[in-house]
Each structure stands twice: as C-alpha cells, then as structure tokens.
Amino acid sequence: MKIFQVTEPFKVEFLEKSDPAVTADDEMLISVKRVGVCGSDVHIYSGHNPFAVYPRIIGHEIAGIVEKIGSGVKGFSVGDHVVLNPAVNCGVCDACKRGHVNTCSKLEVLGVHRDGGFCSKCVVKESWAYKINADIDWDTAVLVEPFSIGANVNSRVGTREGDRVLVIGAGVIGSIAMMVAKLLGATVTMVDIQESNLEKAMELGADYTINTSDNDLYAAAMELTGGDGYTVVIDAACIPGMFMQLLEVAAIGGRIGVLGFSKEMTEIHQFEITRKELTLAGSRLSNNQFAKVVAWFEEGKLRPEGVINKVYRFAQAAEVIEKQYAGDLGFGKNIIALDL
To answer: Kindly report the CA angle at 107 between 101 and 112, in degrees rounded to 5?
Structure first.
C-alpha cells in the first residue's frame, strides 16, 4: 500500500508497504478513496500538535470502501462505502459511561495518536465506520467528519428554529457550523476580518455578515438584532482576547459554544454571565453526530460540496500540506484522492 507520513516537524516521506491484515473478528480492511486535509494535520507537520508521536500517518477525515471483513462483522459487507469516525474511545471510563465519548479520558484520534488516512489501505474496527450511499461521490462523502464538528457544536448549544446565531470566524469550520444552523432553522450572521471569507459565507447560505476590520462588533450586532443580541454565539475563531465580546453580544438567556484549544488566559466579567443567565458550552470533535450527518447528506438537506476548494492527487500530498501551512491555498477544504 501507499503511505504518506510526517517523520518529524517539516519532514515528510512517501512509502510503499505491504497491505495491513485483518486480525480481529471485528475489524475491516478499508480501501481509502479520499482523505481531507485539516488544520490539525498541518499542526502535526509544523510540530505544534502536542499529542502526535512521529512518524505519523496523518489524516482523520476518511472515506473509503470495505475490502475485507472479520468473521464477527455483522453490519457491513465487502463493497460498502463508509466514512470513519476518527475518535476512538475506551467505552469504560467515567466520561464514556456518562455518554461523553468524545471526551474519553483515553481518547485517541486517527491521524494524531494513531496512524490515519493518508494511506491507500487501513484496518479499522467495525464500530468506527458508518455506511454512506454509494451514490454520494467520494469528494462529498469525506466531508462527513468536518460536518460532524459543526453538528456537534450546534447540538451543544441547542440551535433550533427561530434562533439568531452569530458565528465568529468564516473559515471552513465556521461556515460548516453556519450551514448546520441554517438547516436547523436559524438566522445566521457571520463574523470575520476577511471580506472574501464573508462573501463565500453568503454564497453558502449566511443571512448577514459583519467585517470587524472596519465595523464595531457590538454596534453591528445590536443593529442587526434590534438591540436584543444573539440567542446563540458559536466561536469558531477562538481568539482569547475576544471572548468578553461574545458575552456582550449574546442575548439574555443566550448560549455560547466554544471550539477553541488555546491555553492563553482571557479576562471576562462574571457579572455578564450571571446578569444574562448565559450558558457556556465547550464542543470537542463530535458525539453521536455521524449518523445524523450521513442522513443529511443522503437526503440532500445540505450542499457540502460548497466548502471544497480542490481535490489533489495522492502524489501532491506533500505540496498540499506545505502550501496549506503557508496559507497559500485560500478558502475551502482541500482533499487528497488516494485513487488518483
């Protein structure tokens, strides 16, 4: 099989190895068709992911076809098209027992803690895979994982019909969160400092935009909401010094969803949280969102292809990682085709 891996920060290599074997009853051999390039892959490339051990086959957004199955696999057959949930939980810790499998105390993520999808074949547990209709093209199927992130944060804040949602950050994840919020019946305003990102967000379905490079966020938010603020705020930019502004633009009884991983301290006023009775919710990966997102794709309720930037051949993997690290690829999800 073909492999692309990061051997140490800023060093990569292509290898050829024997195909992995199915050795357990609940395992399946997957022929990988597409793998998405995520910011976390770039962080491993640049040495900024503290969880990665080198060498590492990166890639956690994975779609492929079942090639072999173990004797105990009951829910899949050879030839099934599948997408993979990369978050591997233990199932027995306190978090897992309480239903927070995405925050398992022993959580491992494919492409980070374990080898991922930048390879032509991989062996996975049956429980990691979800069937997706064969009429969903591979370039779309591989987007299930990032859309599960948007689904999870909307689930955490309970986005529903009639909500006024403000999304901070109009990059890929922010735009995906917006698209899910729109599907759930909300009106959505996108915030960014790059006009090109905001224009793309409008193409993808946003109702309003605020460019904070030349507009005051609070003033613009109050104008758009008649002074009431936003019932839901989703922070996909996660700029620590900006957090106080999220409390200010939230409506009374508002819910704030945070996707950030920064350890930088930020100052907030507890009074604003208490006065408005705000709810703050962290959102990590996704928790039981894959089946829901697959159904949305199959039913045509989302147009995920709108977030695709370009599909590249496997031989271009190093080039793509390097250019994405340099910020040279622009808006959108970049995808590696293992069969090209």
So the answer is: 130
Backbone angles phi and psi of 260, in degrees to 5: -80, 160
Task: Tell me the helices (H) and strands (E) count for the chain, helix number first.
Answer: 11, 17
Express each pLDDT in 170-202 by its tens digit. 999 999 999 999 999 999 999 999 999 999 999
One-letter amino acid at 6 equals V
What dihedral angle (degrees, nearest 10) is formed by the CA atoms of 259, 262, 264, 265? 20
275 by DSSP, 3-state: which?
helix
CA 309, 262, 200 angle in degrees (round to 5)? 25
pLDDT for position 224: 98
**Full-prediction pTM beyond 0.85?**
yes
Helix (H) or strand (E) holding 231: strand 230-235
Measured in Å, how far apart are the chain's first and last C-alpha atoms?
A: 14
Q: Would you put residue 331 in left (φ > 0), alpha (ψ -120 to 50) or beta?
A: beta
**Local structure of 77: helix, strand or coil:** coil
Contact 65, 118 (CB under 8 A): no
Which residues, at least 6 apart from 58, have a Cβ–Cβ distance to it below 8 Å? 4, 5, 6, 41, 44, 45, 111, 112, 116, 118, 321
pLDDT beneath 50: ranges in the chain: none
Q: How far is the C-alpha of 91 from the C-alpha of 281, rounded, in Å?
A: 23
d(CA 148, CA 180) in angstroms, rounded, equals: 9
